[in-house]
Amino acid sequence: MTDAKGKPDAGLELEQITCVVCGSAESAPLFTSRDLRYDFTPRDEFTLVECARCGLRYVNPRPTERSLDLFYPDTYYRDRKEPPRVRRAPPSGLRRLYPPRAERVLQEKVRHARALAPAGGRVLEIGPAAGQCLEAMREAGYDVVGLERNPKMVEHIRNTLEIPCWRPDEFDPAGAGRVDLVVLWNVFEHLSDPVGMLTQARSFLRPGGGLVFSVPNAAALEREVFFRGESCEDVPRHLFSYSPQTVRALLEKEGFTVERVVSVTRTAVSELQERTERALFRSPLGRPLKKVVYNFGVLPLIWAWDRGTGALGRGHTLVVSARLR
């Protein structure tokens, strides 16, 4: 089998699905998007569709569960790190106002957790990757555990960070104890079975326990202004694109009371910022000039755009806070 460009789909299996929110099989294609991150995965192009009944957007057809690993090469976690020049940039006055990405992301995640569970509570993070948030939550006074599918990340979290972490096939919620809060940062949109994950979360949580996660905002203004006609998603790793309405409907259907769905800009990096940084640091400008452009050009513009769109409820990321009914 080959894709539209004749690229061989070696080992790739695709499946058709119905809407996970309302169950409808009726959908309309929005556009076809290619894999923007890697050019060596087995298929370039995937179609994003919109449910005709509830408006949920999702990839259809999509890779089957066992085919998804083909789109997560070993370099995936390293590729998500900040550009080295950004991490090593000196703390200028502007960067103190708008902290480095990793710092502001962790601060915001801890703040959202505190709104649902006080320090001292037991927190399970699903999909912690390299464990930075687990570390931050531990430093904030939480008893933390992780559930991660990547064996290398599990080993790193266990041995380097000394935090309990399991793979899904070895996790025993009874042995781990019931938890006060389940968190999924930049994970929920990757799940092929979000309903199954919410069912799992219910089994992990104490009565009245909290759930908080982030997803890209399907209603983000940057999609309309800068990325019209493309998914603005990490396709096909992002299998779903949720709006405030569709994510709320899904959670209510699965036994959660939604407390807040807020449009934020500090728990993830926008596609606009990521592409702008990538273009800047690949440009032929000298390093000193890049720093000037970044600190006094890119950062102020991104800061203004993020704050403005967030205030309108159309920022690039949604943070969803809910409790088990």
UniProtKB/TrEMBL annotation:
Specify the superkingdom.
Bacteria
**GO MF annotations for this entry?**
methyltransferase activity
This chain belongs to which protein, by name?
A: Class I SAM-dependent methyltransferase
Task: List the PANTHER family hit by this protein, alphabetically.
Answer: METHYLTRANSFERASE TYPE 11, TRANS-ACONITATE 2-METHYLTRANSFERASE-RELATED
Q: Name one GO biological process term.
A: methylation
Show the InterPro entries listed in the entry: SAM-dependent_MTases_sf
- CDD domains named in the record: AdoMet_MTases
Coiled coil (UniProt feature)? none
| Keywords for the protein's UniProt record, in alphabetical order | Methyltransferase, Transferase
